[in-house]
Amino acid sequence: MTQKRLWFTTAVLAFTCSLCFYSCIHKSDDKPALPPTEDSSQFVTLTDVVPDAILEIRYFGTYNFVGQRIDGYEEPTALLTKQAADSLRAVSDDVIKQGYRLKIYDAYRPQKGVDHFVRWAADIPDTLMKSYFYPDLDKSVLFEQDYIAEKSGHTRGSTVDLTLFDMTTEKELDMGGTFDWFGPESHPDFCGNPENGEYTGDNHKSPAGRSITPEQFQNRMILRRAMLRHGFTAMPTEWWHFRLENEPFPDTYFTFPVKKI
Q: How far apart (Å, rounded) are the C-alpha atoms in residues 245 and 231?
């Protein structure tokens, strides 16, 4: 092989390796998001579209894992992208026929709210609400176990946290656990298989030996099935958390505050 050809072959191999290295450290799910924006023009006040929804916006009050109102929540209301709100209206119509109403804990969450969570998680001595939301965890593991992160799908505007309200009993449907409980007891597959709706009673993942009943598991499934039927996708770690599968802004994080539009 001539020196010129050897040089060319070496250069090609070096370029190919550099491309391979770049692709390995820049996976498709790590692509940079678009710049944050204050533009709320594609959002709606949820109750304008889903008037039957009940609101209990936990981050506007103090009954949440932080124990105080979260930055960016200026009114006790819920906002969503127009597409997500329309799909949630279909869910609402569905569950009303079954005797339930939707109860919303959180919807769009501004980035400043996520930043508040991050600051709180870094303040290890602040465990005011530990007994209510994370009694089995040391607060220092919240980052490494992904309970707290610097970005949230809620900030893209098409994710909602919710439960069902039973119109017969006039109470929340018993889901066997509270919203924002940090632990395996919140997983949709806790004590059952969410894919086929089968209750198994398998609670070996619970560090304290907690369990849920067949009825509580099936209540979770009522919510899950209705959400999946109307275009939402479920989160594997939170029975209350759903994202519009075809969300309109998959790479955009919004910064405007939560207040009526």
A: 6
Are 64 and 179 contacting, i.e. CB atoms less than 8 angstroms apart? no
Please say whether the beta carbons of 226 and 91 come within 8 A. yes
CA distance 159 to 36: 17
Q: Which fold has domain 40-244?
A: Muramoyl-pentapeptide Carboxypeptidase; domain 2 (3.30.1380)
Are the C-beta atoms of residues 124 and 164 closer than 8 Å to each other? no
pTM for this entry: 0.88
Please tell me whether residue 54 adopts helix, strand or coil conformation.
strand
Q: Which of 74, 75, 172, 238 is catalytic?
A: 238
Residuewise pLDDT in 10s, the chain (261 residues): 444 444 444 444 443 444 343 333 333 334 457 999 999 999 999 999 999 999 999 999 999 999 999 999 999 999 999 999 999 999 999 999 999 999 999 999 999 999 999 999 999 999 999 999 999 999 999 999 999 999 999 999 999 999 999 999 999 999 999 999 999 999 999 999 999 999 999 999 999 999 999 999 999 999 999 999 999 999 999 999 999 999 999 999 999 999 999
Cβ(177)–Cβ(241) below 8 Å: no
238 is a catalytic site residue: yes
